[in-house]
Design brief:
24% strand; five-stranded parallel β-sheet; globular; Dihydrofolate Reductase, subunit A; 7 helices
Length: 219
């Protein structure tokens, strides 16, 4: 999992405005992390708010992937229960990424047909997407290393299922505030006895940003 947040732990404003929290250094680190994985997964709300293709912008990183026999960009995956998505987002229009949508039986057939023209679509028989379902689908496609990029509800579900191994966090020099502003992990929250615990693997300061890497201590 990789996320950038303000110094008070927010990943966006209370209005969910779209802007980059981090600097160019943070964006380069994002591409480095993406270059090491087979797929990047986001939730439907993140796609609706940002809508960017999860691509690798730096040519030298794409070349390194090519040397390992990988596609230039990781598989782009979005999870959407009912396929209430906008087709004009860069996620769908960027031509160089493979795209996968995982949805449920709640999605109307006309939407499924529409998005099948833009991406590969997997429809689950249940009404809810579980993190384990996502990893099973990706494993069947030869995907072994997965990066989660939010939002907070999606991140929480993977933490809750104990399916996160590493967490990269960039702390940016901003204060966003707001009791309803999104965080790295939203959802219903954890209790004292059940919350995930982390081991700090590395920390690095560059300018006014701090880059942290954690290992999740398995329960």
């Amino acid at each position: 999992m990789n996320m950038a947040m303000s110094a008070d732990g927010k990943v966006s404003t209370y209005r969910r405005e779209t802007f980059s929290l981090g600097t160019r250094e943070d964006r380069y680190l994002m591409d480095v992390i993406r270059s090491k994985v087979d797929a990047v997964v986001v939730g439907s709300r993140t796609l609706q708010l940002d809508g960017w293709a999860m691509r690798i912008r730096y040519p030298e990183l794409r070349r390194k992937r090519a040397q390992r026999g990988l596609n230039p960009h990781p598989l782009n995956v979005v999870l959407s229960t009912n396929l209430n998505l906008k087709t004009g987002k860069e996620f769908f229009t960027f031509p160089d990424t493979e795209k996968l949508i995982i949805t449920t039986r709640s999605a109307p057939h006309f939407r499924i047909r529409k998005f099948q023209k833009l991406a590969d679509v997997v429809v689950l028989k249940r009404a809810r997407i579980r993190p384990g379902d996502v990893l099973d689908i990706l494993w069947q496609r030869g995907i072994k290393r997965v990066l989660i990029e939010g939002g907070g509800t999606l991140n929480f579900s993977f933490f809750e299922a104990d399916l996160v191994d590493e967490v990269y966090v960039t702390i940016t020099p901003r204060i966003l505030g707001g009791g309803m502003s999104p965080t790295i992990a939203d959802g219903k929250g954890f209790l004292r006895k059940s919350h995930p615990r982390l081991e700090l693997v590395s920390s690095r300061r560059r300018g006014n940003e701090v880059f942290l890497k954690y290992r999740v201590i398995k329960r």
